[in-house]
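Quick start: what a row looks like.
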Amino acid sequence: MILLSDTLKKNVIVLTVSFAFFFVNISYGETPVSIYLRNGDRITGRWLNADNRIIKIDFNGQEMSVSLDEISSISITSNTISEKYLKNAEDLLKLGLRNQARKLFELSIQESPQNAKAYYQMAELFQEDGETDNAIKYFGLAAAVDPSYDLSEQFILSATAYLSKDEFVKAAESYILLFENYPEHEQCAYAGYQAAFLLTESVEAFDQALELLMQVTEKFPENGDYEKAQYLIGKLQVETNQDELAISTLTNFILTYTTSQWLPYAYTMRGRAFLKLHQNGEAITDFTTAIEMTQDLKLQQEIRQMRDSSAWMIYRVSDGLPSNKVKAIAVDGTTIWIGTSKGLTEADTSSAFWEIKTEITTQLEEMFEGSPLNIQSLAADEDELWIGTMNHGVIRYNKATGSIENYTQDHGLPHKLVYDIKIFGSEVWMGTFSGVAQYSRSADGWRIFNREVDELPADDIVALEVTPRTVWIGTSKSGVAFYDREFNYWRSYGDLEGLDSIVGNSIVSFDTIGSQLFFTWYNQSNETSGYTECDLDSLSSFSEEVVRGDLDSLVRPENIHIAVTEDEVWLATNDGVYKNTRDTGEWDLISYPEDRIGNPIINSIELGDSVAWIGTSNGLARINTSALNLREEELKPKLEEEESYE
């Protein structure tokens, strides 16, 4: 009896060799045949012919076609005609008449498809003629019809030969022939594991590989490849979307094989399963643990990309933004103010869902008669929101009353273009295209600083920062300066203070923490950008180059924005987000999810509660910063809880 099985991958690999596959368009005369169907029925008739899809028989005088997919097995009665052809073929072989012998072997098989010896002789002829593929097919048929033929060595040799030519599908087929037909052979375990590994790693026939691995590990749990196979079972469960089962399998692997070389891979695959189930925190924990475990730089990079992607959320016009070009952000408790090239949006982040509020958006549209505001800067405190624009000066919004005031050059503002705003107590400082403006909310008065009257390096003030004793300004091409509030003078900050020569004159952003001032810069002469940390008491500084560009690069270095906490320095660049742990000095590059945001141009960064918000040319990006800092110890109680529950 010949058993028929499903193909493993795209009808290429056959677990138990199918009869009809080897007899395309060949007639088999009037041989009696019984066909056993998968539904339990049996059809008896006389053999006509077959191809790789159907078998045709004479059933009560009528031609009947039966699909191979419906057939479980076939029983064909041997006959003396077949044996006669076989003996004559063997006699011809002894006389050296190979071609004539081959024809008779074929006739023998046509008369009796269960003639194992004829298959074997045909296989040997093909092998002697160097036709390896045909030889293996016929050896497989011989083994399937009569397992007493020990062809295991043939299958091992053919698998080795196929592997040397990177023919992984055929190698797997050869191993499977041994595994299926010789379950007691000493090489059976080896063949089964090797076939499963090839199907997983080289062929990527995941469903079939998983089925085979389950069979092999159940039969040979003491084999040296069992550990790797257990990891691969979890991996394949992820690949075949059995994610909850995969988490259980991989968790068991992690707890069992604590020193395994496959441990980083197990964490990575479990992270993927968590991610597919939208358990991003757990996913990031596993990815981070895997990164720390492996010394393989390529693997680290691959895992980091998965981890980074899982930490991101991207908000765009479809989520309620007026434009995807986000220029400015203000974090105001659980409220996020978002300034875009086409207006302002208020978002409530107090719940798990993103909620857009439209009151101020509507007010501004009515105030400016539908003309969209190109917003450049935002600053918020407990009472007010200040909005710097490209063409409409600065807007003051009272959060309690909802009142709006618009200050322009008619009110004392140096220029209608307001690059940056900082609130310090009752003071509101603004960097404009024509100098610095200070507005006193308590006195309702303006004070203007510009190059004509004061010792500013330039009037285009693109960034500023305010401290109790100083006001720092950054210009587009003329470096940094600060204002001494006590002694009322301006002073450039540079060589005399020991500023490193790598620092560029194009200043991008500022931030402060305690007595430390940070600013980012772009050096146009050598296409680099970086940041400087300055001690506000001694004015000593440390500078570091972060991004180096070139003319051929798609990533430009001039956009680099900074946000600082007591523990970390965050730099948002066009190249990615760099996070520096201040106590160790270690840098971590967090890549953008290119499939969702492309290659963005960065306009701003602000830190919130366990969140970093980044304004880009392709939307508002949010990183879950607390999740990125998770480690395995934080997940361990959850794993133990899951284990005890099971």
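That is the whole record. The first helix runs from residue 80 to 94. Residues 1-30, 631-646 have pLDDT under 50 and may be disordered.
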